Amino acid sequence: MTNSSEQITLQVNGESRTCAADTKLPQLLEQLDLNPRLVAVEYNGEILHRQFWSETQMKDGDQLEVVTIVGGG
Description:
Elements: E1 7-12, E2 15-20, H1 25-31, E3 39-43, E4 46-47, E5 63-68
Parallel strand pairs: 1-5
Antiparallel strand pairs: 1-2, 3-4, 3-5
């Protein structure tokens, strides 16, 4: 198991963010105060389908674009 005190740096929507090295994507979204049901995620240039989120572990240097889905018409 990774030492959770180790921090990694990644880019989220162009901003530098840090998180624990053992952070999975859903945990990261919670840390960013984002509702996982209302966002789409591009992970290192690829749209990441929701079914893979729970197994996607953040790595140093990852680049994420998180887009909030807005309802309405």
